[in-house]
Specification:
single chain; mainly alpha; 81% helix; rod-shaped
Length: 196
């Protein structure tokens, strides 16, 4: 089953693939900041939920491990009870002792085997959950870094273009009044330059 985090990562990748390229560029794209922000916001909200799910899985493994311990203890108790019953009969005391030891040894071996298996499974699941979380967070970090780089580049490009347009407009304004100072003198206060 695909997690919501993986779906959001897929949506981010699909969104970036479908963005229009920047004019005259093969590597830069134009992004909608609100759309990227929404996906990132949802990603931040979903990450803790999925980590909780993995913690719940680990807790379930702990419950299995505890159940295995309980079963092992019950086996040992049953073996001890059985041993006491055999020993209570004087005629077969030696045989009962041997059988009791065998039962206890077998029960302890089974209990240890159950504990070992449950511990291995719990550790493997813990490692898988940690590795999965690390991989998802690494992917998110790369996507965010890429989005930040792209947005920064686009912003820098926009500022450069606006400055060029401002310089052009200023140049055009100056061209409209190239000799304005020659038409104004100190004697004609309140009047504009003479019209020729």
């Amino acid at each position: 089953m695909t997690s919501r985090i993986e779906q959001i990562i897929d949506e981010l990748e699909e969104y970036i693939e479908n963005c229009k390229p920047k004019f005259m560029s093969n590597t830069e794209i134009i992004v909608n900041k609100d759309a990227i922000d929404e996906l990132i916001r949802e990603l931040r909200m979903k990450t803790p939920d999925e980590i909780k799910q993995y913690q719940k899985i680990i807790s379930n493994k702990e419950a299995i491990l505890n159940d295995a311990r309980t079963k092992a203890e019950n086996l040992i108790k049953e073996a001890t009870i059985h041993t006491n019953q055999l020993i209570s009969e004087h005629e077969i005391m030696q045989q009962a002792y041997a059988q009791a030891n065998e039962v206890v040894t077998m029960a302890s071996g089974q209990a240890q085997e159950i504990l070992d298996k449950a511990t291995i499974e719990a550790n493997e699941l813990r490692m898988q959950a940690a590795q999965y979380t690390e991989e998802r967070l690494t992917e998110i970090e790369k996507i965010l870094a890429s989005a930040i780089q792209t947005t920064s580049t686009n912003y820098d490009g926009l500022i450069t273009s606006l400055n060029q347009y401002k310089d052009l407009i200023q140049s055009n304004l100056e061209a409209l009044h190239p000799v304005e100072d020659e038409y104004t003198d100190g004697s004609s206060e309140g009047y504009g330059p003479d019209v020729l």
